[in-house]
Amino acid sequence: MAKGAIQRRNKPATTGWRDAAARGLRRIGGVLLLAVLAIGVGLWWAARWTPQRAQYPLQGVTLDASNGQVHWGSVKAAGADFAYLAATDGDSGVDPLYARNMAAARDAGVRTGPIHHYSLCRLATDQAANFIRHVPRRTDALPPVVWLDYDDRCPDRPTRALLLSELATFLAQIEAHMGKRSLIAPGAAFEADYKVTSGIARTTWLRRDFFEPDYGAHPWVMWQANHYLRIAGADGTVGWNVVRPEGTTP
Q1: Which of 20, 25, 105, 165 lies at a C-alpha separation of 20 to 30 Å from 49?
Q2: Helix ranges (DSSP H) in the chain
Q3: Average pLDDT of every residue of the chain
Q4: Which UniProt keywords apply (predicted)?
């Protein structure tokens, strides 16, 4: 017994430390594995989630050239009642697939509307000219949307008064061309700085993934609820939108 006790006392001191380190690494590995699995499940869920159709009967998609050659029959089958398509950007940008998508969606029975990405670095009249040049007037088109976001390509930050004045000029010109009033779609940061929804009397389209947005001065009429969605017929992710049913309140 004395010999065994001596042998136990002579056991290398580093062995216990190594065992503890190995156990710690195994625990860390288990936590990391669970985190990776949770992220994977979250991404899987986000790529498939849309608001309940019973609550929002009218739902649609937002697409641009990054979604490739869209198969509109599949997009309609995925539940898109309408589509908003990126059309123009600033005073010269044009989505190369806008005309094709507009025609193909119409042939598939999906109504479309154009999106203009407004630039703080370009004159309103030049941007309106770009929009009018590339977006034809159609009586069956949905109202145009003015997308308002900051852009790393544009460092300008005009005063609120100047922005609202320029935006009013842009809206007046494209609405005269389209024959209908526009929607404005400010991002949360843009709205926080410029409070566009309280300065421009237009229907509001707000954006927040998975949770209803509340950052506008007025209740939203359109909500982009998920821009991580993947659907049959389009490459990559799309924006998924719902329309507030008439007669409902936020």
Answers
A1: 105
A2: 2-9, 14-46, 72-77, 98-107, 124-134, 160-178, 188-194, 196-199
A3: 89
A4: Glycosidase, Hydrolase, Membrane, Transmembrane, Transmembrane helix
Q: Distance of CA 120 to CAs 8, 80, 82, 149, Å?
A: 76, 32, 29, 9
Q: What stretch of H or E contains 182?
A: none
Whether residues 33 and 60 share a domain: the answer is no
Identify the domain containing residue 9 by its residue range. 2-44
Give backbone dihedrals phi and psi of 20, rounded to 5 degrees, phi first: -65, -40
Tell me which residue of 135, 99, 115, 95 sits closest to 182, measured CA to CA.
115
Q: What is the DSSP letter of 157?
A: -
Check pLDDT > 60 for residue 8.
no
Q: Both 61 and 12 in a single domain?
A: no
CA dist list (Å): 199 to 119, 164, 186, 218, 226: 18, 7, 12, 11, 27
Percentages helix, strand, coil for the chain (3-state, rounded to 5) are 40, 20, 40
pTM score, whole prediction? 0.83
